[in-house]
Amino acid sequence: QVQLVESGGGLVQPGGSLRLSCAASGQITSTYNMGWYRQAPENQRELVAQISAGGNTLYGDSVKGRFTISRDNAKNTVYLEMNRLKPEDTAVYYCVVIESNVYWGQGTQVTVSS
Question: In whole angstroms, what is the distance from residue 45 CA to residue 53 CA?
Answer without folding.
Answer: 23
